[in-house]
Amino acid sequence: MTAQWPGDDGGTPQGREPTPSLPDDVWQRFLMDDEHAIRASAPKEPSALQRAARPWPRPAPAADAAERERGSAEA
Question: What integer pLDDT is reported at residue 10 of this predicted model?
Answer without folding.
Answer: 60
